[in-house]
Amino acid sequence: MTEDGLETPRLGPTLVDSAFVWFLRIVAAFCLVFGILYWVRLVGFYDGLQWRFDTMPVHWQVAAVSLAVLFPFAGIGLWMMASWGPVIWFLCAAIEAAMYAGFPELFGHKSALVVAHVLVAALYIAFRVAIHFERRKEQALTQDSRRY
């Protein structure tokens, strides 16, 4: 508050902005881990039957190669706060949700992973809505201060 009773606009990031950055960076770290796990499966370091690229069924080959490439890109985009990072992450989440929720007979049941993707998407939307309302409030304050 100033002497006139008007608030001055903030110059630095708000608490919501800082929390959003940390949220994106945590999701980015998980994306990089998921990408590494898919690469581990592709190169054959993973213990289990049919977890080497040449012994995988075709449906797993397509999914594993796609996600091994897309997850690291999503992680990099999210870490850099690039506008395309969440888009690539959403593509990865949609592919995994389709794999585990749509075709469980081919890929197995991983409902916890699907729920985790839905929760991350819900948190992302909540952050974007909170940031939108913060920006609107900030704009209203600056417009009110210009009137006087």
Question: How would you describe what is shown here?
Answer:
- With 148 residues, this protein is mostly helical.
- It has one domain (15-147).
- The protein has helices at 15-43, 58-79, 84-102, 104-107, 111-147.
- It is elongated.
Question: Summarize this, please?
Answer:
The chain contains five helices and no strands. With 148 residues, the protein is an all-alpha fold. It has one domain.
User: How many discrete structural domains?
Assistant: 1
Number of helices: 5
User: Which H/E pattern describes the elements?
Assistant: HHHHH
Estimate what percentage of residues fall within beta strands: under 5%
Give the rounded overall mean pLDDT. Answer: 89
The tally of strands reads: 0
Low-confidence stretches: none
Shape: elongated
Distance between the termini: 15 Å
- Secondary structure class reads mainly alpha
How would you describe this structure in keywords?
148 residues; 5 helices
Topology record:
Layout: H1 15-43, H2 58-79, H3 84-102, H4 104-107, H5 111-147
Helix pairs in contact: 1-2, 1-5, 2-3, 3-5
